Amino acid sequence: MATKKAATKTAVAVLPTADRPEKIRNVALVGHSAAGKTTLVEALLAATGTIARAGTVVDGTTVSDADPVEVAQQRSVVLSVCPLRFDGVVVNLLDTPGYPDFTGELRAGLRAADAALFVVSATDDVDPITVSLWEECAGLGTPRAVVVTKLDAPRASLGSALAACQRVFGGADGQAVLPLYLTAGGSAEAAPEALVGLLTRTVYDYSAGYPSKETPYSDDSGVSVDGDVEASRNALIEAIINNSEDETLLDRYLAGEDIGLDVLVDDLETAVARGTFYPVLPVCASSGLGLSELLELLSGAFPSPVELDPPLARHVDGTPADVTRCDANGPLLGEIVRTSVDPYLGRLSVLRLFSGTLVPETAVHISGHGGESRGHPDHDADERVGQIFSPLGTTLRPIERAVAGDICAIGRLGTAETGDTISAKSAPLLIEPWQMPEPLLPVAVQAATRADEDALAKALSRLTAGDPTVRVERQIETGQLVLWCLGEAHTDVVLERLRATGAHVDTVPLRVALRETFTAEARGHGRLVKQSGGHGQYAVCDVVVSPLPRGSGVQFAEKVVGGAVPSQFISSVEKGVRAQLAHGLDNDRVAVVDVLVTLVDGKAHSVDSSDAAFQTAGSLAVKDAAAAGGHVAMLEPLATVEITVPDAHVGSVLSDLSSRRGRVTGTVPDTTAPTGMERTVVRAEVPDAELTRYAITLRSLSAGTGHFTREFARYEVVPPNVAASLRSTSTT
Ligand SMILES: Nc1nc2c(ncn2[C@@H]2O[C@H](COP(=O)(O)OP(=O)(O)OP(=O)(O)O)[C@@H](O)[C@H]2O)c(=O)[nH]1
Ligand SMILES: [Mg+2]
């Protein structure tokens, strides 16, 4: 699919970048889909002059939603890096997709970031997925702030959005989640036009757009504020003082001392950077309201990469490497957080540097380990980095160097995949890749024609290099090519990407790897006698098929007496029996397993008997044993499933499981859940056939908050009333 946005523009001028890690901020924008992250990024880029004017998501003209799939879907699908400069600091905004199917990109964004900006829409409740993301960041100590968007929508207000944020993000008393500004000049119908700074007691008037006009605030300045300025100011000051490292501050404040603005701002910034205080800021992308204030927070309060530890790196022999600081003069260490295909440069790798300085024409070591289960075999290679770029969405701007802490893009690294470590060729290192979500929605695909098969194979390797959340499996038993995805929207994107390469790919119904077995002993007679004219064929054999325990496979024995089947043909019978059982009794690929086939009798002809004839007779004998009916049963794979859901959803999960032939084996509290967010782990055994769409079902049962794991357990006999429909969907 080609759009005007598809081609990368490569600017000629060399872009000045941050010269020191201290001058860099990496901030991931996270939150519910459609909360306004991309729109906000666009407004910030325009406000800082990074782009001439803001595009819109609806028109498909934003910097960060420039991928053709994003333009078509009007939402973010991939991680975008959008650097801007403010107050001498380079702020790398990492715009992540909010839709749960693209959480792999969110994970990469969080890995590349040093702080998270939670974008919350004033028109909606804070959704449970965003709340659990907050909890996760809390567990890691990630510095956070909240911006409230869509304050221009009818009946939206900062007050109610704030109360919701304090309830779900604020912990015990909500006193760590407080606004720095209140909105003013708005009403139920009209958007706010100004902010009142609680610390500065200043009105920032945006009625004429960005930048604002500043005037001092006083009770009689005639500004209609949404909220109580003095009460909010006192609460904020108390929270800052409580968080301050200066223990004398509280006594001085309680003694009535007026604490200076500089001290308060310094302490506020320290508390935000340490991840102990979470300011709330109202913004309106269309009017520019709050953009300066947000930029000040991003550049002033969020930590530089120097203030955080790089992820643990090891030498190739497994010993820990001494890369404990973000140092521009330290050893080269970076991680690929995104891989895409650029029309001019081919494979494009976006790199977060944790240590060292990367300059063009450097020999580097690329190392990828730990993705084996998803079709990413361990790989190590030395490659040369050519030009280095600063990415702005899909625009690439050449740069002279990237220092530790910064994010840059490199073209033409042939072996590099998302999650790989980049280090110096002379001192190879390896970072443990971050946790990727497990894809649990299987989609069977096939190339439309034989000619498309090559194109599909190429497209698949390109796809998996860029999207570590998709798993490609060639199922041996069903012969199907299965793409494991995170959800339906992810499936659509995956198919779109495959088709964009020119491969004609169709989706086909997913087959379950069914098997059959014998439930009782049965006799079978196989007879191949063709003796009219020329060299004939003669083989007769009698077999007894008896059931074996699950997992035994096919076993063969012979109890022939008196040489009724000459010894040289016994292995021929075995071959024929095994081939027929492997192909299925109806040649429908439903293999027969867990049986003992005993050759008990037979007849041979001194001239007309042959290996081929006894193979055929063996195969006819097992078919005959099955033909009497009543003792052949279908087996289906069963999975052990572990479902983790908030307690409120356990009931609906359990009743759904019983409707899909699931057998619950236990429910236990999730001991890792934070207080107030109690979760339960439900363990069950569920047939594979009932799990094909479970990723979607569980999402709707649990409002997106549940997750599950599955593991093959064993094969089990299918109830007769289910067998027929299973066979028809799985063997057609
Ligand atoms: N009225 C109003 N609409 C907004 C505002 N911010 C964003 N929108 C609209 O809301 C829709 C979604 O905005 P996006 O910026 O794409 O939201 P997002 O958070 O990036 O969504 P995902 O990429 O799916 O995670 C778009 O149609 C925007 O025009 C706002 O402040 N006010
Ligand atoms: Mg977006």
Please tell me about this protein's structure.
The chain has 732 residues and is α+β, with helices and mostly antiparallel strands. It folds into 5 domains: 24-307, 3-Layer(aba) Sandwich (Rossmann fold), CATH 3.40.50; 313-431, Translation factors (Elongation Factor Tu (Ef-tu), domain 3, Beta Barrel); 444-508, Elongation Factor G (Translational Gtpase), domain 3 (Alpha-Beta Plaits), CATH 3.30.70; 515-630, Ribosomal Protein S5, domain 2; 634-730, Alpha-Beta Plaits (2-Layer Sandwich), CATH 3.30.70. 26% of the residues lie in helices and 31% in strands. The strands form 8 sheets. Strands 17-16-22-13-14-21-18-19 form an 8-stranded antiparallel beta sheet. The protein has a 7-stranded mixed beta sheet with strand order 2-3-1-4-5-11-6, with helices on both faces. Strands 28, 32, 34, 35, 36 and 37 form a 6-stranded mixed beta sheet that branches. It is elongated. The model is unreliable at 1-12 (pLDDT under 50). Residues 37-38, 65, 75-76, 95, 97 line the site of magnesium ion (MG).
SSE layout and pairing:
Elements: E1 24-30, H1 37-47, H2 68-73, E2 80-86, E3 89-95, H3 103-112, E4 115-121, H4 128-140, E5 144-149, H5 158-169, E6 177-179, E7 181-184, E8 194-197, E9 202-205, E10 213-216, H6 229-243, H7 248-254, H8 261-274, E11 278-282, H9 291-300, E12 313-315, E13 333-342, E14 346-355, E15 357-358, E16 362-368, E17 379-385, E18 388-392, E19 395-399, E20 402-403, E21 407-411, E22 421-424, E23 429-431, E24 441-447, H10 450-466, E25 471-474, E26 481-485, H11 488-500, E27 505-508, E28 515-518, E29 522-530, E30 537-547, E31 554-558, H12 567-583, E32 591-592, E33 595-604, H13 611-627, E34 632-646, H14 650-659, E35 663-669, E36 679-687, H15 694-701, E37 707-717, H16 720-731
Parallel strand pairs: 1-3, 1-4, 4-5, 5-11, 6-11, 28-32, 31-33
Antiparallel strand pairs: 2-3, 7-8, 8-9, 9-10, 12-23, 13-14, 13-22, 14-21, 15-20, 16-17, 16-22, 18-19, 18-21, 24-26, 24-27, 25-26, 28-34, 29-30, 30-33, 34-36, 34-37, 35-36
Helix pairs in contact: 6-8, 10-11, 12-13
This protein binds guanosine-5'-triphosphate and magnesium ion.
